Amino acid sequence: MFLVTVVLGIVTTICTQPVETFRSAYKEEFPFMGYMNRSNIQTCALVIISTRKFVTAAHCLMSWDWDNIQVFLDLSRVEACAGSRKLRSGYCRNILEYKVSKNYARGSRSHIYLADIGVGHLEEPFELSKTIMPVTIVSPDPVVFKKSWDDIVNTGTTCITMGWSVVTVTSEYEHSFYVEDYIHLSNVQPWNDTKCRAADRDRENMVSFGGICISCDRTELTRVSEEGSALYCNGKWYAVMSDVGLMNERRPGRLVLLADFIKELNISHGTSVKPTKVLVFVPPILLYVYVIKCILG
């Protein structure tokens, strides 16, 4: 087995199993999962790939505002945290710098990103333990990795998404978000590239940039929707969550498959960023969550 030191691709998943399709994680079940913390507000999930490195969605690190101006994450106000299933618990480290895929770009719609994957470097390393441990992948060889992924899709293997942010579907086109105190998981089913491309123009572009799709069974009204989190299949890490959507047949979840990015982000391609004076970027989806929590008390 190999320890990962690089980034993923985009995926779409489906919840398929009727038993335990949505539940809280067991203690020490996902020791590679962490989150980015700003003023005690959880923003995006992250995946630990070494004691000093993590992977997350690129838009959690740098994005664009409504005037199409690039906005960078203020590293002086954000920490990377891990080591506990519970939010605002565990151990946190300052983020030294980060980089995103050289192909990272904004899609035709404001909430869609292409090659949405990035890697962060910590000022101080995490200490390895039963609750903090790097994730594993099938192989660092992109060809071997992609073949393993194709086998996952072709055999209809159920995968897992995980995180603290949760979406509840209220109708075919509507949903609401909230944040759980403890990490939860959902069973999902990956789509093949043909089905993902056919979903709409944006997903067709996304697949060309390493993107994949997933969805949940329509009877499952609550599912994990954590941007930057891992897609986990057969005990291995395959992709990073980019856009939540409704995770149904009309709006599947979007992810980035690791295969196309393993070598790129490992050899330090992409844009290395160490901002000094920058605006703080918080993903819009998390602002909605925070506003909802304030309103509801």
From TrEMBL:
GO biological process per UniProt: proteolysis
SMART domains recorded: Tryp_SPc (SM00020)
Signal peptide bounds: 1-16
One Pfam family named in its UniProt record: Trypsin
Gene Ontology MF term list: serine-type endopeptidase activity
Keyword annotations of the record: Disulfide bond, Signal
Coiled coil: none
Peptidase S1 domain segment(s): 6-297
Homology family: Belongs to the peptidase S1 family. CLIP subfamily.
Protein name: Peptidase S1 domain-containing protein
